[in-house]
Amino acid sequence: MNILNNGLCKDERLNSKSTIEELFSGNSKSFSIYPLRVVFMPVEKKKNALASILISVPKKRFKRAVKRNKVKRQVREGYRKNKHELLNVLNEKENGLAIAFIYLSNEILPTNLIEETIKKILEKIKEKIQ
After folding, report:
1. Which residues touch 108 (CB under 8 Å, ≥6 apart)?
2. So what's the pLDDT on residue 55?
3. Confidence (pTM)
4. For residues 111 and 74, is the Cβ–Cβ distance under 8 A?
5. Considering the domain 10-129, what is its CATH architecture?
6. Which ranges of the chain does DSSP label H, i.e. alpha helix?
7. How far apart, in Å, do the first and last CA atoms of the chain sit?
8. pLDDT digits over 52-76, tens only?
9. Contact partners, residue 95, CB within 8 Å, separation at least 6
């Protein structure tokens, strides 16, 4: 498996209904770093992905799908660029992780601010799983 892959392949998307229900049922850890709330839990490692992510932008915050999709792209890009250190730790532990990013702000923030937040989030997750 290539950890240095800079893309975000289909296996890295969290789409298992049972895993998502388990993630939000209360058996997982969560914290907030504005403008994102993160919920994560250890799962069995998939064949091609160490971590799978879900990005949620509530319709309550942005009525227009165009704006919701823009925020999702910003979060996905921030994660894609900065996921490598987290994946290295998961690879050493031979463990998988399910992560949900929930957007909390009422306005679209600059991409670099979201990327910095994601860097902090990934560092904090790394500390908590070690």
Report:
1. 62, 67, 70, 71, 74
2. 97
3. 0.92
4. yes
5. 2-Layer Sandwich (3.30)
6. 17-23, 65-82, 84-93, 111-129
7. 22
8. 999 999 999 999 999 999 999 999 9
9. 42, 45, 50, 129
